[in-house]
Model the fold of this input.
Amino acid sequence: MQSDSNLRSVIVTGSNQGIGYCIIDGLYSGSTPYHLILTSRTLENAQKAAEEIKNKHPNSSSKITPRQLNISDSKSTDSFVEWIKTDLKTVDVLINNAAIAKVDANVQQSLDCLNTNVFKTIEFTEKVQPYLTNDGKIIVISSGAGLLAFQSDKARETLDDSSLTRDKVLEIAKTFYEGVKEGNKETLLSTSMGCYQSSKALINAYSRWALARSVKKGQQVYVVCPGHCQTNMGGSTAPRTAEKGAETPIYLTNLPFEVNEEIQGKFLRDKNVISWVDRIAPA
Done:
């Protein structure tokens, strides 16, 4: 095995189960060696998942480090970033996978969804970004539910604006958050599929415009729709396996660490670029 300092480091949030677990598993079992940081809300769950993957692939040339990380908790993210600063030093790939979704969510569950999927994902990304290598990658796991086709005309016009800034996205998100909290149905964003849908529309807009503009010239940004997968979030009857959902993030991680303008800053599914706006066939 190469020394840790020579291995590209890959952080995957929420990776003790589901798609995140399959991303770690797929990279660990692959031919390219990495230092994989497997994270979970509890260290115990992270350690358990890491041991399981290592036992499945005893001949791997990669390394797994389990770490506690709850992106919804600022103290947890501060502690994690301090570990990056003092131990890991740099990050080559950040895969933002952690998210919340619940069918028929009540008001508090909807607010928690918006907080984690939008505010805390942005906060964590920006805490880690200073440690991203000059040719590093940020991969955001989103959803086709965030396509603008599901939003109102006003929301489509607002979120499809190339001049959209980080602060404007946060302003829209905060207004929507307060509207949900107060039971106001006349908000900019659609709630026809619950707040998960709107949270993904917002994180898509942030990633597409603000994040893509904020990275250094040699850094890469991608957004991924894994499809409807069989996970705790997606349910056991979903048409896709979690392994299938992990294929595109694994593919993007394994791409050369050099910008490809054809896919840089784009929305991908099944390793192909898709529209930010138009509906796609469910799968």
Remarks:
- The two ends are 38 Å apart (CA to CA).
- Residues 42 and 130 are 25 Å apart (CA to CA).
- The chain has a mean pLDDT of 93.
